[in-house]
Amino acid sequence: MTKILVLVTIAGAALAAAAAAAAPTLTLAASARSVDYGKPVVLSGALSTQKTNQSISLESTECGSTKAVKTATVKTAAAGAYTTASTPIAGTSYQVTYKNATSPVVAVTVRPLLQLIRVARGSYTAKVTAGRSLKGKRLILATETVGPATKPVVVDSVSFRAKVPAKTRVRMLITAAQAGPCYLGASSTVLRA
């Protein structure tokens, strides 16, 4: 009787260990850790069971929120691999789930789009595009000169005037402190004054 009890206990422990070892796991990676506003990021990974046609749920948590939202459901392909794209409007954390398995969290940060338009000599218009309002944030007109440096102009309005020597290279900047916490700092393309 003791031998049978020992055998049942050993067999039960072996089955429990096998079941625990067979618990599926997920991987998740992003094609980029930061993207420009409006650009997608490709999220991919694999299911450890390597089964095809399994439903993987993608969940996202936007900056400023603690609630994860189901963003997409994707099916696994050969070797349990999956791929999907997402376009974050602000800094976003992603995680995938399958049954009771969850992947590690992958964070993707977002840069707002800045555009500097030269309207006339010494007159400019700045445009900031982001998923959330950045109204009231300060922009900086930065110059790149070969000669003496020109003091940066802090811009509080969309249209502004700035005294900049002719043919000086200028661009708009928004610092991480002004764009944050949900956006990275960013800069526009360079123009000639």
What does this structure look like?
- About 10% of the residues lie in helices and about 45% in strands.
- The strands form four sheets. Strands 2, 4, 5, 7, 8 and 9 form a six-stranded mixed β-sheet that branches. Strands 12, 13, 15, 16 and 17 form a five-stranded antiparallel β-sheet that branches. A three-stranded antiparallel β-sheet has the order 1-3-6, with no helix packed on it.
- The protein folds into two domains: about 25-110, Immunoglobulins (Immunoglobulin-like, Sandwich); about 110-190, Immunoglobulin-like.
- It has helices spanning about 1-20, 175-180; strands at about 30, 35, 40-45, 55-60, 70-75, 80-85, 90-100, 100, 105-110, 115-120, 125-130, 140-145, 155, 160, 170-175, 185, 190.
- The termini are far apart.
- A hairpin with a 2-residue loop joins strand 7 (about 90-100) and strand 8 (about 100).
- Residues about 5-10 have low confidence and may be disordered.
- The chain has about 190 residues and is mainly β.
